[in-house]
Amino acid sequence: MSFGDLLRAAPGTRPNLTAIDPRSTPGFDAGKSAARARLQELRDELAEFQEKLWAEQGQSLLVVLQALDAGGKDGLIRKVMTAFNPQGTRVTGFGVPTEEELRHDFLWRVHAATPGKGRIGVFNRSHYEDVLVVRVKELVPESVWRDRYERINAFEAHLAANSTRIVKLYLHISREEQRARFQERLDNPAKHWKWDSGDLETREKWPAYRAAYTDALERCSTDVAPWFVIPADHKWYRDLATAEILAETARAMDPQWPEAEDDVAAIVIPD
Ligand code: AMP
Ligand code: MG
What we know:
This protein has helices at residues 3-7, 32-56, 73-79, 99-102, 108-111, 133-136, 142-146, 148-161, 175-187, 198-204, 206-220, 235-253; strands at residues 60-67, 89-93, 120-124, 164-172, 227-231. The protein is an alpha/beta fold.
């Protein structure tokens, strides 16, 4: 069974996040050092894929990352997304919307950051915040956020119809692991900058976030834009599973070298 098949949130079904162990390592029991070795092979494969994608100029790849605080999005970008050439890749972080962004519809800033043909886009948080934090903190009335799942599905289907392959990854960490990572941020002066007092407030609302994530996964995992639940307490597994899913996606996209514009065999380069 592929990693995608093991970890995909089946479209139309309600995932039971409580039953998915964040410490588990589905599809891989060889341990950390074997995982790191396999990751290197996958990084090479992803690098080659990207060069073809860039050359072909026909399709694009969008990777959406969501997680609770300390879920490991930044580490994942550093360990896996760096396989891609920065020329042709854009990572976009979505924070609290600016005044101007708030004057537009919630997808405005997101659409502007989507990858064009030949490109890879990575979203560090995304339009899903508009049905997660926005819902939990009651930043808009329920009637507004309720309506958004369908709008998100329509938006993603629109991107898919325009040759964008979408992979959405939810990094699933346990409450204990989050506590340990927060503690590390407090204990290590080099990590103090990551400490955000608002994160404790979010931690307090764990059940509300769990419910909001469950709804988003149920309502917005579709055939054209599937969600994957990545058990993420083990960083090595998180990186490996993500790289495997991206490599499977890359093989399915199968970009091709374009035809040369001239009859290259007949060209003689002058001295
Ligand atoms: P970080 O990813 O740690 O830099 O934090 C970004 C913050 O922006 C998080 O607390 C998010 O919940 C918040 N954020 C992102 N998108 C939205 C949104 N649409 N509305 C409100 N807050 C948001
Ligand atoms: Mg933060």
